[in-house]
Amino acid sequence: MFEELETLFESPTIKPSFETVHVILALFIFEDNKDGIGRYRLQKELLIGSGTARSLIKKLNHVTKFIRVLTDENKRKGHILTKSGFEFLKKLKQKILLIEEGEPSILKDIIIKPEGNHIFFCLVREAIEKISNGIEQRDAAIKIGGVGATCLLFNGKNLIFPSLSYDYDEKGQERVDEEIFEYIYTLIKKNNYNLKENDVIIIGLGKNPEKARLAALNAALTIL
């Protein structure tokens, strides 16, 4: 799915310091800012340095041509997605449907260290077979600066926790309680999506919202 991004990381000298998660999140951010977004704002959203943000924007503009400069009466208003950028993001969003902030206090019974942390949800469509025990996703969240990640799997009826093997008829399968299920389900419905069998919910934790969002998304990218 990420073959189109490979050229962003090619360099005859020093490899770019941004990662795939920064590229993907940048495209989501550009989509949400149709009036244009500049380098300094993007830098803060992605928690990257000024030089890294400059390099990322330059490559998205000139290499993949996923963004362009928006001008108004000869004044730069920032960058927006091009048609190619929209098409790539549309394809990606067939798998990652949602990146949304959540309330840690409601999920305190199923996430580690809820106090003082922020959370973001990712809804990943029909990816249950890519999950083993959730350790890889937790590690991906920590690698990008998050506190960790929790995975929940929808078996068509309940949200259950990962295990090394799945038997959907097994009565002993550990599942989240009704209140938590309703909260997550309502959050998804609010964004005009539905849960489908074999969907995965990834909850990323971070010391601030930006880190939590990166944690959730980087964990989600491991199952694409």
Detailed description of the structure:
With 224 residues, the chain is α+β, with helices and mostly antiparallel strands. 35% of the residues lie in helices and 19% in strands. It folds into 2 domains: 3-91, Arc Repressor Mutant, subunit A (Orthogonal Bundle); 95-221, GAD-like domain (Gyrase A, domain 2). The protein has helices at residues 20-32, 39-46, 50-62, 83-92, 135-143, 178-190, 209-221, and strands spanning 67-72, 75-81, 96-102, 118-124, 148-154, 159-160, 200-206. A hairpin with a 4-residue loop joins strand 5 and strand 6 (159-160).
Structural class call reads alpha+beta
- Helical coverage, percent range: 25-40%
Beta-strand content: 15-25%
User: Uncertain runs with pLDDT below 50, 5 residues or more?
Assistant: 165-169
Mean pLDDT: 92
- Helix tally? 7
CATH class of the largest domain: Alpha Beta
What's the domain count? 2
Total strands: 7
Order of helices and strands: HHHEEHEEHEEHEH
- Reported by name, the CATH topology of the largest domain is Gyrase A, domain 2
Strand arrangement, major sheet: 3-4-7-5-6
Largest sheet: 5 strands, antiparallel
CATH H-level superfamily of the largest domain: GAD-like domain
Distance between the termini: 8 Å
- Outline, from the CA principal axes? elongated
CA-atom Rg in angstroms: 18 Å
